[in-house]
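Box S1 | Example of a co-folding query
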Amino acid sequence: MTNPSLLILAGDGIGPEVMAEVRKIIDWYGTKRGVTFDVSEDLVGGCAYDKHGTPLHDDTMAKAQDVDAVLLGAVGGPKYDSLDFSIKPERGLLRLRKEMDLYANLRPAQCFDALADFSSLKKDVVAGLDIMIVRELTSGVYFGEPRGIFKEGNERVGINTQRYTESEIERVARSAFELARKRGNKLCSMEKANVMESGVLWREVVQRVGDTEYPDVELSHMYADAGAMQLTRWPKQFDVIVTDNLFGDLLSDLAAMLTGSLGMLPSASLGAPMANGRPKALYEPVHGSAPDIAGQGKANPIACILSFAMALRYSFDMGAEADRVEAAVAKVLADGLRTADLMGPEGGAPITTSQMGDAIVAALDTSL
Ligand code: IPM
Ligand code: MG
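Box S1 (continued) | Returned holo structure for magnesium ion
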């Protein structure tokens, strides 16, 4: 049997630092569990632009199509702010999502017990929180045509188009229903059917998929603005949420912050199964490239490490090993180890990015 293959695209800012810690976990699997990954590395984002004049080289795109899973760090930075829109670092990431057709973006928001005090909300509102946002990732206003800045009379007009086909809604709805079945059997779909036709269609199609294929899953619908309000009021009412690309972008940041730190949250972007049965997949932390702290050993590697855990679960059918990595993270947090982003107002001595990686590896050792 061939080894599972991984393409690492560490990207910009803190991307390479947090990815270095993931490499320690990958190596641990090779030496301690006999699971060897064939790892290759390449460039995405600003660093790819610096070298090739494009945020994603065609060769890198081809490699991404060819591996079992892609692990991405983060892209972007102030150095690239003035670049033309078409070659901004973010376009590299958007191209990967689009060309790999990664339509289902899984963004868990889980509150670690040790961090419940970090939430801006009261502890009892967030303690034990474990929800999953499924964000549609390859369509909607991010990709709809027409788009652009056009001349209209003597002024300019900026245009983006929200567009969803029935099949695009159906496939992401199915992903969400499947996940709900494996979790609390409850799905809430969010759109703005009160003002947008695309929302009317979204609601209708999700309801139809539920009625015909998942009658056992408890389905509800909410307008996305009310959903944002309910997420801050009592987030534990939710189990799985399914929503479109733009609302999912906003709601997942909101949900992430409920848990105390954006630095903690992983994501998986999944597409259709490949010939080997594994889904097309890209895993990345929800946080960005954090250029303000890059290169200082301050970044929290946990979101990226938990993204690798999601790869174990969703690409490699190693759910028990994913549990092991998640438990190791929970253990170091319970032991009181904190990177700088997890320092409360009372302060304390933060550990470095690399110390956090080492502590998680040590916790993995004790799990054996
Ligand atoms: C995200 C990010 C991206 C998005 C950016 C970097 C293009 O905010 O993954 O949530 O808007 O999708
Ligand atoms: Mg975002």
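The chain has two domains: 1-112+264-368, 130-258. The mean pLDDT is 95.
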